[in-house]
């Protein structure tokens, strides 16, 4: 019964969000562009000796897209590893937090801490369904016991950046211990970029538009890989202030103050601290 209800709820949400969602309507979104070379400056490792996870190693496929992030210390609630799945077109179809070191180790009924599932309607329209605390199927999909938190309809522009998100939240009933749809909290988020390719004003996924954000002339660490920008819904090319040292490609290595990178590489948080150090694949000697 719960399986049927869950499938109906998800289907209704996706159908409502994808209504009139053909590429004919969105002329600003061209066919998917050819994959770009993401391997030059990919993040290889992040270390923070003052954190509970101590260090994180990043792994990529042959196209330079991330497949997993493994923590030095993991396997407890709040410190899971991170995994990424793709379709045959190289589009991100899911990322989730799990307590194994490789995909081959997952078995049906193994749990996940957080899960984002992406349903591509076409190259310019994708549905992002987020789940919390559930179990995995044999194909690494979330089972029906995972709580569906939000369903977001993401529209992409001609540069394949997320330009708009129609978000439908669900609320938790603490008395009956269940999640339910909350029609009063449907919201639209519009993402705009200035001539330098930076988001202006900055839009928070939960709070909406915020005040203007200050950028430096240095590169954003997320700009090295389109997957980080897609997940974060932020395609800004420049970094926010706070870097103490930079590599030869003007990417932050260490920080002098905390920044606003938040929970992106959860549980690697806070990402920008004075004890954090980031290592990249950039070949500075051959620059």
Provide an overview of this structure.
With 287 residues, this protein is mostly beta strands. The protein has 2 helices and 15 strands. The protein has one domain (2-20, 37-280). It has helices spanning 2-18, 226-232; strands at 43-47, 55-60, 66-71, 81-86, 92-98, 111-122, 125-135, 147-156, 162-173, 178-190, 203-204, 208-209, 243-246, 252-255, 277-280. The strands form 3 sheets. An 11-stranded antiparallel β-sheet has the order 10-9-8-7-6-5-4-3-2-1-15, covered by helices on one side. The chain has a two-stranded antiparallel sheet with strand order 11-12. The longest helix is centred in the N-terminal third of the chain and has 17 residues, at 2-18.
Helix and strand pattern: HEEEEEEEEEEEEHEEE
- How much of the polypeptide forms β-strand, as a percent range? 35-45%
- What is the count of distinct domains? 1
Determine the fraction of residues in helical runs and give it as a percent range. under 10%
Distance between the termini: 60 Å
Number of strands: 15
**Average pLDDT:** 78
Strand order of the largest sheet: 10-9-8-7-6-5-4-3-2-1-15
Alpha-carbon Rg, integer: 19 Å
So how many helices? 2
Helix/strand/pairing category:
mainly beta
- Largest sheet, strands/sense/barrel: 11 strands, antiparallel
Low-confidence segments: 18-28
Shape: globular
